[in-house]
Amino acid sequence: MPTHYLACDLGADSGRLILGTLDQGKFSLEELHRFPTGATKVAGALHWEFDRLLNELKTGLKKAAAKNLAIASISTDSWGVDYVVYDERGLPQSPVWCYRDARTAQGVELVKGKVEWPIIYAETGIQFMALNTIYQIVTEPAARLAPGKHILLIGDAFNFFCSGIARNEVSNASTTQLYNPVHKCWSKRLFDVLGLREDLFAPICPSGTKLGPMKKNLAAEVGLPPIEVVASCSHDTGAAVAAVPASGENWAYLSSGTWSLMGVEKPQPVINDQSRALGFTNEIGYGDTVRLLKNIVGLWLIQESRRHWNKAGKKLEFADLEKMAAAAPPFVSLINPDDSRFLSPDDMPKKIADFCRETGQPVPADIGACVRCIYESLALFYRCTLRKLERLTGQKIERLHIVGGGSKDATLNQFTANAVKIPVLAGPTECAALGNLLVQAIALGHLESHEAAREVVRNSFELKTFSPQDSAAWDAAAKRFEKLLG
Hints:
Blueprint: E1 3-10, E2 14-23, E3 26-36, E4 40-42, E5 45-48, H1 50-65, E6 71-77, E7 83-86, E8 96-97, H2 103-112, H3 117-124, H4 133-137, H5 142-145, E9 150-153, H6 154-163, E10 168-169, H7 170-173, E11 179-180, E12 185-186, H8 188-194, E13 204-205, E14 209-213, H9 216-222, E15 228-231, H10 236-242, E16 251-256, E17 259-266, H11 273-278, E18 281-284, E19 290-297, H12 300-311, H13 318-327, H14 348-358, H15 367-393, E20 399-403, H16 410-420, E21 424-426, H17 431-443, H18 450-460, E22 464-466, H19 471-484
Helix pairs in contact: 10-17, 13-15, 15-16, 15-19
C-alpha cells in the first residue's frame, strides 16, 4: 500500500507544499501548492511576511485534504538563521527579520565588543557570516526579548504552528552560531557573555522527532485528520543532504539554490585553526552527522539579476538566461561571489559591472555575458572550495553530487564539472523536500535506515552525469580567478 506524507519546503525565494508517496521502494513527489516567500521592505528594513506564509501553508493543506488520501505526517524545512520571537501568550511577534537586513552589521560590532572571534568559532564551528543568528539576536531591544516565551527558527515555527510543541530541531539550531556541536547543546558560554536567556530558545530535539498530532483546530479548519507532525530536518540544507543519492566514500555534495552549500559528511565536527582560517562550517545533519561545508552565495546572483531585468521590462525565464549564457564568449569577466556587496538585494547587474571595473576587467556587454560571468565565477569558486575541503580533511574527492533547484541547470553543471575536474552527478531537484519526506518515513518506521532511504532515492530518480571537459582553458581561468579572491 502506498504511504503519503506532506513536506512544507520553504526557500528564501519560494515555498511549496509537496505530497510525497512511498510505494514499493520508490518515492514520487507532487507539488500541491507553490507561493512566493521573498522578504518585504518596510520602512527600509527587510522582514518576512510570517502570517502570510502561514496562510499559504493552510491553503496548501486544504488542497492536500481535497486529495482524500490517508496522509501519515507533515514536516517543514526552511532556510536557517532567521527566527520568530513569541510573546508570553505564545503568539508570534512582528517583525520577523530577514537575514539580509542591514542591521546585522551593527550586530557584528556588538558581538565583537563582547567576545573574540576565535572563541565563537571554537564554541560553534560555524563560519563567520554577518547574517548568522548570533549577530541578529543582539540587535533585539530588551523590551522585546524580556517578556518572550520562546524563540523558534523558521521551519520549527511552522512545526509549532502545526503541533503546538515548541522545539528547535538540531540541524536548524546548528545554523545559529549559538549551538555547540561538541557538547550537543546551546553554548552556555556564548549565552552568558552576550547576556542572552538560554531558556528563551526553545529546547533542541534530534532530527526525526515525532512532535505529536496536528492541532485539532488547525486540522478541522483545513479538513485533515490530526496527522503526525515530525521535526524532520528543519534546515533545508540538512534535509537536502539527507536525500543525496550517494553511496560509498569520497564524495562531496553541492546543494545548489539561492545559496550554494558545498561539503562532506563527517561523523564528528572539525573545529581547528585551519578550518577557521578556511571558513568552513560544522552544521548538524540527519543522524547527528556533521555537514562540514562552506556557505557560498549561489543562484541568488541570477535571481536578483533576473528580478532587475524583469523590472526593466525584459521578461526572461531562467531557461532563457541559461541559453544566453551558453552562447556568450567564455572567460571575458569573472567576479568573486564571496564579495560582501553581492549579499544584499537591488541591481545585481550594476554590482557585477562595478566589480569588473574595479578589477580592470571588461564590463559584461549584455545579459548573456553577465549570466555567463556568474556561472563561470560560481564554478571556479566551487573548485577553490573543493580543493580547500580536500586539504582540510585529507580526503581526495572523486565525485560531486549536485542537488536542489540548481541541478536542473545543465550549463552550470557542465561548467562545474569542467572546473572541479571530477564527474558531477546532478539530481534530484526537489532534494530538500525529498529529504524532509525521507526523514519522516524513517521516523515513522516506514524506512529502516538512512542508507535504505538513500537507496530509495537512487531507485526513484534519474541522475545526469557531467564529465569534465576543456581542462586547460579552465585551469588558466582558475589562475585568473584566484587573484580576485584576495
